[in-house]
């Protein structure tokens, strides 16, 4: 099978060598863990514990606040210290449950299901929902909602997003190298829900060892295959991935299901497997601590809710001054001003850079060179959109398809005038969408 | 934690190329043509090149100093303008006209409209047109060139063709013919163009469409049928290669939309043909480019690229309001 891709995109320095050879190490947190009630798209979860309660690892501490929502489980055993607003990676204050770990990690019981094939679709989806599984690549869309499309018969592709196109991140890579069986079993469960679908693992070709391992595992699987993808950012963007694998295109008003596709990231598929097979809710995830300022870049299996500062310490801290701390990768991650924030279901990395390229260069005049147009995976004209955004010409912004922006940042990355194109476009998009909601 | 950290919107990394580096690539790409011009026309050509560049850079510096603006000569765009303008001048031009042209290019065409990125016309070509209109005799005097033994001595190959004569295609490729300093050697120009394409500074869309359209136009309306010698001469002469690869591709004054670039190339080809075959003069590249520059906002408006995954129907609806 040939290498597939999409039109546009950029090739940032990938930095994966810093941490890719480091096996995942389990990290037991000390002290207090924080569980924001909104770590998914949709309604916040509702606490089911009170301050002073003792909880076990794997105990539900908040239940889903609606259909599009997800329950939250404690990843440690200990005592509920507070339910109060805490700052999260994106900068907001979010109501959170604070649990003081007793250091024992005593688990509650889980119900295993050895014979998954005998489970009905409803039972499987309910198990996934109860396990608190959400899209762990960053979006945090509740997985049970994604797996309940209006017309299940029209789903033809289940795509495992194994691209990991964000530079520096290696958590998905380590998962694929260390536990590819779990990923394949997760895919098998989703395929059971959609009897007409094919399962495709889309892997960037900078991970030939993953392609080899997965290909070996699925070689006798009638309904699974591995699709090598060109190494290019944002290859793991949902719309770009669907295009590369199936040749189908979706826009901002469509869901992947409209193109007969469901896309799930590596961590999510593993979480589905753990949730259905072992009844274990989502309590851990793989996490990369990396960047040129980090003393010992590594991959961890973390208890969700662990403080970022503790993770940095576990990687031996900083060996040189860091100018910028980022939750996530350098292209779409969030800059942090403080490490005293919790990890959530969707945070995949802490990146510490000794240089801040975003503010290092001065913005100069746009020379209309068109590099942003070449870079845009959505085939937009970012320089025009940024002009319209900055001049508040929102009608023109919409006419030039500003709302189709996926906020991948490729335009800003490539701009020789160092304009903050993605930032302007993102802001305008928010304003336009907000005014549309008001109407 | 007592240290403060930078907080910005994503992305947090940037590519290496900046405006200055792109301009540097353009300057490097023009060196073969400039070098050949100096070889072909002698030290006078070198003097004109140096003076024109100096005039452009000095004009930008003085203008920005006087208006207390940030000095931007470091981006090297004024050097590019000066070099391009010099390559568009005959080597016999009096030095003060070249200096005046450089000042006109920067102050009138570029700075008065807001500086880099805001000018709607290629500064070097704007200045060339200004000089042709103001000093027609001096700007069309190619008698400096002694190496071309022909009855129409001192006339450019295209003027010779227009008057019914014939030209040597080989000499036109190499460039040992009369003309402006940088337009004569097709080979030198193509070496520069290939460099620009390899460095990712330009792509073939605009020059390709331009040259193809003009070739087709020449075959149909050129009056020589399928005379390949005539076609080659028309393609190699009159600064078409210099214009197509180095001036029509000027970022600021060409469309940014992919379809717009095709349309722009088409306009250039047709206009050059009209000016050459139906106009009074033998050359038409500068005017075609300058005129097409003016069409850019219109071209961009009708060639808004449809976003990824957006179907035709939706576009019709959006346009309707």
CATH class of chain B: Mainly Alpha
The level-1 CATH class of the largest domain in chain A: Alpha Beta
Pattern of helices and strands of chain B = HHHHHHHHHHHHHHH
Largest sheet descriptor of chain A: 6 strands, mixed
CATH superfamily of the largest domain in chain A: NADH-ubiquinone oxidoreductase 51kDa subunit
Strand order of the largest sheet of chain A: 1-14-13-17-15-16
| Mean pLDDT level of chain B | 88
Model description:
Chain A has 439 residues and is an alpha/beta fold. Chain A folds into 2 domains: 1-26 and 112-357, 3-Layer(aba) Sandwich (Rossmann fold), CATH 3.40.50; 371-438, no CATH class. Helix content of chain A is 28%, strand content 19%. In chain A, the strands form 4 sheets. A 6-stranded mixed beta sheet of chain A has the order 1-14-13-17-15-16, with helices on both faces. In chain A, a hairpin with an 8-residue loop joins strand 5 and strand 6. In chain A, helix 11 crosses helix 14. The longest helix of chain A has 18 residues, at 421-438. Chain A is globular and about 65 Å long. Chain A starts with 24 loop residues before the first strand and ends with a helix. Chain B has 321 residues and is an all-alpha fold. Chain B has one domain (19-302): Ammonium transporter fold. Chain B is 61% helix and 0% strand. Chain B has 15 helices and no strands. Chain B starts with 18 loop residues before the first helix and ends with a helix. At the A-B interface, strand 15, strand 16, helix 9, helix 13 and helix 14 of A face helix 1 and helix 15 of B.
